[in-house]
Design a protein that fits this description.
The complex is a heterodimer. Chain A has 2 domains: about 1-50 and about 160-285, no CATH class; about 55-150, Alpha-Beta Plaits, CATH 3.30.70.3040. Chain A has 10 helices and 4 strands, in the order ααβαβααβαβαααα. Chain A has helices spanning about 1-15, 15-50, 65-75, 90-100, 105-110, 130-140, 155-195, 195-205, 210-245, 255-280, and strands spanning about 55-60, 80-85, 120-125, 145-150. Helices cover about 30% and strands about 25% of the residues of chain B. Chain B is built from 7 helices and 10 strands. Classes of the chains: A alpha+beta, B alpha/beta. The interface between A and B is medium-sized, with 17 and 30 residues. The structure holds adenosine-5'-triphosphate and magnesium ion (MG). Adenosine-5'-triphosphate binds near residues 24, 30, 48, 54 and 208 of chain B.
Chain lengths: ~290, ~240
């Protein structure tokens, strides 16, 4: 009760500093929130795409069916591979004319079938990433009857690297804001302690524990952090609504992420306050 | 008998200085090889000219600072094994009174005392009763609701003493408690500390009030000069 009263009093004494501290915590977590939203949606999209990640090996014309059969059994036994489908030249042409109806005339008038036979290799869930895809592609390429190997490598890799870049950028930006937040909260706490130095000196003289002396300042940090976390939540949610309603369907993050974010903000505020209090009170004892 | 007078079992010495030397970074030695002890329930003056080291002695006994050489022992605490987290426990056993009172101006007399009780974890229920009792002890029951600015110097010092008694200390360290008071108020505060001492609490009373010393020749005197203990009226104990 006393701790709460004093924390409020100190926030009232320096409202601007309190608002600044809260805002910087808010922004640091807002950036993290935006990244979380992006990462979450990229992951959703990826898991969707991943199901369709395939490696296609095109075969040289004239490859005997028996050789293909042997190869197929080998490929199925690769640890990454879940299934292999053989598509003959005829099937390929059939598929193509079905898919590209505008060109069906062209396809039906062909004298020679230009499309190669192929093996469509699909991957097990844990292996639908750039590395595994590349590994499987390399092994397929080593068969002498394989002419070319294709996979959605480029854009799978691009999405992954986009995620990495977004992660790094938000870590740097969010980290910078967090650092500013730590300093601002520290300043606020130092000012609060300064304003109460007389009382603190008396408390120390009569034998109040350090925990008792610190409590109001930790609480002040906690409340500042909590307010910052709620601000970040509001900003992130608002941004999401805006984007979702206007140009891009995006999904909201799971509740656990939100709770963790707000709790993290509160913790950040309390830890910054704790750091400042420890530093400030240390000077008052020789011991 | 009030609870603060119940001494724990153990040796008969409340405070022991054993070859204590204290140096400050720029001003040099404040105390040089000082040894003495104060028994449980004993009253002693600590005197000497300005800068002799009186405040330094009291601050060492309060573990506000630590000796550079030697050892300070207070009750069951010792400066060489003291940990930071033990300090509050020691301070609750050792009351401290300042020349300038150090009351919180925005609080009333009773609130100043309650502040100490609350900060050391007294329950709210017991607090009210104890504040009244303490203010009664120092003869200020009638002024419980006054702010320090409405009290005389002597009355303020009484509030400060009541506050120092809040944690039931075994010894009271008083740093020139009468330094800011006129003769009559000073005598009043001295008599109050004597009465508290009569109930069993040890008192170490730093002062350079020559008249006070002169009028109470029965009281033990420890005299410092340039950081050395030059006289102890208890004679044989001076250099042990
Ligand atoms: N915090 C400090 N830093 C540096 N020097 C100090 C400090 N406190 C005391 N001193 C020095 O230690 C010596 C003893 O000081 P102390 O305050 O103990 O004297 P005193 O007997 O209490 O004097 P007074 O009667 O004026 O209060 C002095 O020379 C003083 O300058
Ligand atoms: Mg002094």
């Amino acid at each position: 009760m006393r701790a709460l009263r004093e924390a409020m009093a100190s926030l009232r004494r320096a409202p601007l500093l309190g608002v600044l501290s809260m805002t910087s915590i808010g922004f640091s977590l807002f950036i993290l929130g935006l990244f979380g939203l992006t990462a979450y949606n990229i992951d959703l999209a990826l898991s969707h795409v991943e199901e369709q990640v395939q490696v296609v090996a095109y075969l040289r014309d004239g490859t005997g069916e028996s050789r293909v059969d042997v190869a197929r059994k080998e490929v199925v036994s690769f640890p990454e591979v879940s299934g292999v489908r053989y598509i003959s030249k005829v099937e390929a042409l059939h598929d193509a004319s079905q898919e590209l109806t505008e060109f069906s005339d062209v396809f039906s008038n062909l004298e020679v079938n230009p499309l190669p036979a192929s093996l469509e290799v699909s991957l097990k869930p844990g292996y639908r990433n750039p590395d595994a895809v590349r590994r499987v592609a390399e092994r397929l390429r080593s068969y002498d009857f394989v002419d070319d190997v294709r996979y959605g490598r480029d854009w799978v890799e691009r999405i992954f690297s986009l995620r990495r870049i977004a992660g790094a950028a938000s870590l740097i930006l969010g980290g910078a804001f967090a650092l500013v937040a730590v300093m601002l909260v520290g300043t606020a706490v130092r000012m609060a302690i300064l304003a109460r130095s007389e009382e603190i000196a008396i408390m120390q003289t009569i034998g109040a524990t350090e925990g008792y002396i610190r409590r109001p300042y930790l609480l002040e940090g906690l409340m500042t952090g909590l307010a910052g976390g709620l601000l970040a939540f509001g900003l992130t949610w608002g941004t999401w609504r805006l984007v979702d309603a206007s140009f891009l369907k995006v999904s909201w993050m799971p509740d656990v992420w939100i709770v963790a974010g707000i709790a993290g903000a509160a913790l950040l505020g309390m830890l910054s306050a704790g750091r400042a209090v420890r530093k400030e009170l240390r000077g008052l004892y020789d011991l | 008998m009030p609870p603060f007078l119940r001494n724990p079992a153990g040796g008969s010495r409340m405070i022991r200085f054993e070859g204590v030397t204290k140096r400050y970074p720029r001003t040099g030695a404040a105390l040089a090889d000082v040894s003495f002890h104060l028994r449980k329930g004993e009253f002693a003056f600590l005197t000497g000219p300005s800068g002799a080291g009186k405040t330094t002695v009291l601050q060492l006994a309060h573990m506000h600072t630590v000796p550079d050489e030697g050892r300070v022992r207070v009750s069951r605490f010792s400066s060489d094994s003291m940990r930071r987290k033990d300090v509050p426990q020691l301070r609750r056993r050792v009351g401290y009174v300042f020349q300038d009172f150090r009351l919180l101006e925005r609080l009333t007399a009773s609130e100043n005392v309650a502040f100490a009780l609350e900060a050391t974890g007294a329950s709210r229920r017991k607090m009210r009763q104890k504040v009244q009792q303490l203010l009664g002890h120092v003869g200020l029951a009638a002024k419980a609701q006054s702010h320090p600015s409405e009290l005389s110097g002597g009355e303020r010092q009484r509030v400060a003493i009541a506050r120092a008694l809040a944690t039931d200390p075994l010894v009271l360290l008083a740093d020139e408690p009468t330094g800011n008071l006129d003769r009559r108020a000073a005598d009043g505060v001295f008599e109050l500390l004597r009465r508290i001492n009569d109930l069993g609490m040890a008192v170490l009373f730093a002062t350079h009030d020559a008249e006070l010393l002169h009028r109470h020749r029965d009281v033990r005197v420890l005299e410092l000069e340039h950081g050395s203990l030059v006289y102890d009226s208890a004679g044989e104990e001076a250099s042990t």
